[in-house]
Fold this protein.
Amino acid sequence: MNRFYFITYLIGAFLLLSSFNVQKCADALQKAYEEKDYDAFVDAFPDKYEDFVNVYYWDNIKNEKMILYDHYVEHLDFLFNSPKVIEGKVLDKLLSLSYNYIWGADAVSQVIYETEKLLLEYPNRFTEYFSGKTDEEVISFLQMALTNIDTDNSYYLKGYYKLLETYTPYSGRIVKLAKIAFERAKKACDVLVVY
């Protein structure tokens, strides 16, 4: 019986700590945004998909918004519209965010859109950045950018083909990995259920 209470206590403590960390992250993000402190904003920006969702998402199951849901547009505009967005520190955050990334509306889809845009605008920078990454890391990053709920949509396919066309003169490796990422993104999107 004591073991049951101890385990229950540990789970409760973990959930409370997790909730505290999400609030702390949200507070740091909002403060950095208000002060227009890009470096502090990047430092505070979630580097795990789960944390990102807990800060910026709309929970369809509970029908409630997360802490900074109302600010996701201006926060993501702040992140992606800075010349510093192609620095390694920011790209590393996006790479970390890409692990276990799945399609979602609002903030999640804005990250997908903005990441794809960056890939198309800065092929030199991404070729350099990806040269220091493993194939699986590159695939994860590209898969996030290529994740879309409707992978047969002609607009979406145009973006994929534009990505291949853009990187063909730069890196055969990235083109090859983009094809793998696209297939994985399609599989991931095929199993999504939208209500």
Remarks:
- Strands lie at 58-59, 64-65.
- The chain has a mean pLDDT of 83.
- The first strand starts at residue 58 and ends at 59.
